[in-house]
Specification:
The protein is α/β, with parallel strands linked by helices and 378 residues long. The chain has 16 helices and eleven strands. A nine-stranded mixed beta sheet has the order 1-2-3-4-5-6-7-8-11, with helices on both faces. Strands 9-10 form a two-stranded antiparallel sheet. Helix 7 crosses helix 8, helix 12 packs antiparallel against helix 16 and helix 13 crosses helix 16.
């Protein structure tokens, strides 16, 4: 199965139930991709105790939407729809139950947050599934905010969601085992939620956690990774990144990580459907590429070179220019490419001189740091 991906894994492994062979890392990545499906009106909301099987959710979705005309945005592959259909038709995933879906996007409070609870009854396990960054510009701005702000709104929401859901799940089933996970920002949210979960009296939620999956998600600032709460959960974090990872190398990681082989190049390796699978495991490599190391050092040094006020000014100005196009998503921004560039140039020209100097200085600084790191690596 050299060169196979998680879709190929489902075709090969889909007839084996979780009762026959337990959840593995590849299964967890599949769940972290399925959460990108828009489940509004299909999976019961966060305040409901009702559930729906993945098979029934899949049937409902494809009755409601034409996958040939549907899109998850400019950066997420349409093949996720194929993955979802295969999962719904499979013995392995078809019977798992989905519940407590929530999707919050608010441009004023700058939050993009989505999560869902997955019950794997054959294993007596619950998987708290967090969505990564979607197509919305507000989602990307929140990612940029992570460079100088902790917590960002989605991290706070992740703690609230996990605390609310898991305490109620444990009231119904005290022996339930817990896993959390997500891809991209979803992985960061899974770690943050597990780290700062609000415990009920006499219930140690962190002790019940089996694993926290962070699939190519960013890390945290020093305040978080040096905290007692993080130290308690660190050994349960499983971080998995592709060999040219960018997103997954951002900010601080104290836990170890596994490097997997991708059939894509550069930033495109963030696409989890490009990660290669052999049997029930990822094809692993010894380390990330030199280009990943250089870019990682560049971004970390650049972020640390700016104080909080400067970083916030840069991000605010950058997204004000992007927002001048009236685009709400990356797809809208890229669809009207020529117009978007023209509008953004006018928006930049309209900024005051101090803001222009700040933007130029920040970009020049990043380029200079990158050049120095390239020379050191040569």
């Amino acid at each position: 199965m050299d060169g196979a991906n998680i879709i190929d894994y489902l075709k090969w492994r889909g007839d084996l139930s979780f009762g026959q062979t337990p959840l593995n890392d590849v299964d967890s990545l599949i769940l972290s991709q399925i959460i990108y499906i828009p489940f509004e009106g299909i999976v019961p909301s966060v305040r409901s105790t009702r559930t729906i099987t993945l098979k029934n959710a899949c049937d409902k979705f494809f009755n409601m939407y034409d996958e040939t005309k549907s899109s998850l945005g400019a950066l997420l592959p349409k093949e996720i729809f194929d993955l979802f259909r295969l999962a719904g038709e499979s013995v392995r995933f078809g019977k798992i139950r989905l519940s407590r879906y929530t999707n919050k996007i608010n441009h004023e409070t700058e939050i993009q947050f989505c999560a869902m609870t997955v019950f794997i009854d054959e294993l007596n396990e619950v998987f708290i599934d967090f969505r990564g960054t979607d197509d919305t510009l507000v989602g990307w701005k929140e990612d940029f905010n992570m460079g100088f702000m902790t917590p960002v709104p989605s991290q706070t929401e992740a703690v609230k969601y996990f605390s609310y859901v898991i305490n109620r799940c444990l009231c119904e089933n005290d022996s339930l085992k817990i896993r959390l996970g997500g891809h991209s920002k979803g992985g960061n949210l899974a770690v943050f939620a597990a780290t700062f979960v609000r415990e009920q009296a006499e219930t140690s939620i962190q002790d019940r956690i089996e694993c926290i999956y962070n699939f190519d998600g960013p890390g945290f600032d020093d305040k978080v990774i040096q905290s007692e709460e993080y130290m308690r959960t660190r050994e349960k974090i499983k971080t998995i990144i592709p060999q040219s990872s960018v997103v997954g190398m951002l900010l601080g990681h104290e836990e170890g990580y596994t490097v997997v082989k991708s059939n894509q190049v550069g930033l495109l390796q963030h696409d989890a459907l490009s990660w290669e699978v052999m049997g029930t495991e990822f094809i692993c490599l010894e380390s990330v590429t030199d280009s990943s190391i250089v870019l990682d050092k560049t971004l970390k040094t650049w972020i640390k070179s700016m104080d909080t006020v400067s970083a916030e000014r840069f991000v605010t100005a950058l997204f004000e220019i992007l927002s001048a196009t009236d685009a709400r998503t990356l797809t809208e921004l890229m669809t009207g490419k020529n117009r978007s560039i023209s509008v953004m140039m006018k928006a930049y020209a309209g900024e005051d001189e101090d803001t222009k100097r700040m933007l130029k200085s920040a970009v020049r600084s990043m380029i200079d740091i990158w050049k120095r790191n390239i020379k050191r690596k040569a």
